Amino acid sequence: MHGGLLHVAFNMYLLYVLGPQLERWLGSVRFLLIYFGAMLGGSLAVMMFGWGQATLGASGAALGLAGAMGVALHARGVSPRQSPVMGLVVLNLALPLLVPGISFWGHFGGILSGAFMGYLLIWQPTRSKNISLQTSLASGTASLVLFAVLAFMFGRMGGLSI
Questions:
Q1: I need a surface site. Which of 32, 43, 70, 111 has the fewest CB within 10 A?
Q2: pTM for this one?
């Protein structure tokens, strides 16, 4: 489900721009872990902080790829600010603040969890001599499960009562 043709178009554009390049760099397993980690992390943020707002779509997962791309660029020595990715992130964080009915927490949680998954699956294996790819994959998988469990728990609780 998506909130209209424009919503689908934005998500498909992000997937088109970021998906193939990230999957080529990382391989399918790490790419899928990042995508689903961002999806569940975005859902977790909504369950915790945006419980009352109706939310749908795959924006959190698509924006998570942007967060992971920022980490991947930084790991390669390229400033993410020099990439069009930063503009996409800023635009997609601003949209929910400017347009009613778009989930800020889904977008924000997706970007943060995608960057976190990128840290586990991209940054650590390339920058640390003590972290193997297998350890990185195990950490990414554990994070995915943790995001899912926490999203389920907060969903059952009805979010945080702040």
A1: 32
A2: 0.87
